[in-house]
Amino acid sequence: MSLPADSDGSAAPELLGTLYAAHPALREVMQVLNADGEESRIVGGAVRNALLGLDAREVDIATTSLPQKTTALASAAGFKTVPTGIEHGTVTVVASGEPYEVTTLREDIETDGRHAVVRFGRSFSADALRRDFTINALSLGLDGRLHDYAGGRADIETRSVRFIGEPSQRIREDYLRILRFFRFSAAYSERIDKRGAAACAALGEGLQTLSRERVGHEMRKLLVARGAVAAIETMQQSGLLETVLPQPADVQRLRQVVEIEAAAGLPPGLTRRLAALAPGVSDAVAMMKQGLRLSNQEYDALAAAHAAEAAWLSDEPAEQILYRFGRAPALDGLCLAGAKGFDRGKTAKIAAGLPHIAIPANPFGARLFLERGVKAGPLLGAALRLAEKRWMEQGFPDGHQAVAAIVSSVVETLGADGAVG
Fold first, then answer.
1. How far apart are CA 386 and CA 195, in angstroms?
2. 379 & 349 share domain
3. Do 176 and 154 fall into the same domain?
4. Alpha-carbon span 380 to 365, nearest angstrom
5. Would you say residue 1 lies in a domain?
């Protein structure tokens, strides 16, 4: 493997200043970890995002010190420490209420496509070159020097996501890197690297060795990324998507939903994008739940989105759909309907305005009917349901007289024998 050597790094004090501004305790944490002959650097996503001008919400730190020494140095400075992954060399240092994951430098000894046996080391270059992509192998020292052992800075400038070294070797070390390649390409790249994509396609069967939880975690992140459609289309063309998803995926519908989101100025919606991929039938949604290990809450949200889609396609009034399903399912269903025959221009216009439409509040309570002699129990429940139905049919009137009229009509309909007319 021939990669650029970097012994001294290049000066990048502006990056350090950006990270210090976003994470006020970072400088002190780094100074503490650099004591007693040790060296620590900011690594991974924080450096990548700072170079891209994106928020670095979390800061990971790599260090030459062993976990026990990391704990001792941090504790002596008054920081809280948590052994979050001590067997892997990771200690979480909490400073000013913010957590920093600090991990001892590592080298791979053995990999099997899912797990790696590692040993602790003191080489930043060895630690960097065991990572997946060039843009994730950058490190930034306390002296403000940016270290690049794999050509990551150039790839950031050209918006490229490339494996470090030989793609096939990186993938065989951990088959989850197939999904990470497409997820990172969707998030950070202008185009999908052909060499990397070809290696992923050739080794796609390795995805079957992964847990569905790990697959589902990556797919969720991929689907809401900026370039999700292009990545999913490439996966479909190479046969990878059918390995990941348990049912045929409607990628064209996903593209249409994403276009509607853009036209309406909506942020990416995971539920609606998942629902776009899954046909709106219960078996397909159930397969999606199993295949990606969706939670019960996610499953219910998918079902609600498909139900709201049917309501939009049947020309049910917007206010009624909002009331029946809630704002998020109504919006998801609208985007899905727009990709299935609902007027596209109308869809974007309604979607843009939907967040500003007030959801009516049900004005009927049990007291209104108890005062009219309706007995508690099944009869009262029937009265409340019928009143709500008529209120919806009349366009949600909220005046006292209108509500009283509906109550009277329901009481009359129920009749003395309690039968609903």
1. 63
2. no
3. no
4. 10
5. no
Question: Total domain count for the chain?
Answer: 4
| Terminal Cα-to-Cα distance of the chain (whole angstroms) | 81
Are 300 and 404 members of one domain? Answer: no
29, 56 Cβ separation under 8 angstroms: no
CATH code at 182? 1.10.3090.10
Is residue 190 domain-shared with residue 86, that is, in the same domain?
A: no
Contacts 24+ apart (CB under 8 A), 88-93: 88/118, 89/118, 89/120, 91/67, 93/29, 93/33, 93/61
Residues 355, 230 share a domain:
no
**SS3 (DSSP) at 249:** coil
**73/153 same-domain check:** yes
> CB-based burial of residue 39 (10 Å sphere; 0-12 exposed, 13-18 middle, 19+ buried)?
middle
Q: Are residues 382 and 280 in the same domain?
A: no
CATH, residue 103: 3.30.460.10
Q: Which amino acid would we find at residue 413?
A: T
d(CA 405, CA 366): 16
Task: Report the run of H or E that residue 311 belongs to, with start and end.
Answer: helix 296-313
Question: Are 281 and 349 in the same domain?
Answer: yes
Q: Per-residue pLDDT tens, the chain, 421 aa: give them.
A: 444 455 567 877 889 999 999 999 999 999 999 999 999 999 999 999 999 999 888 999 999 999 999 999 999 999 999 999 888 899 999 999 999 999 999 987 666 656 666 789 999 999 999 999 999 999 999 999 999 999 999 999 999 999 999 999 999 999 999 999 999 999 999 899 999 999 999 999 999 999 999 999 999 999 999 999 999 999 999 999 999 987 788 999 999 999 999 999 999 999 999 999 987 666 778 888 888 999 999 999 999 999 999 999 999 999 999 999 999 999 999 999 999 888 877 898 899 889 888 999 999 999 999 999 999 999 999 999 999 999 999 999 989 999 999 999 999 998 744 444 3
The CA–CA distances, whole Å, from 114 to 85, 200, 220, 335 equal 17, 15, 20, 37
> What domain range includes position 149?
10-158
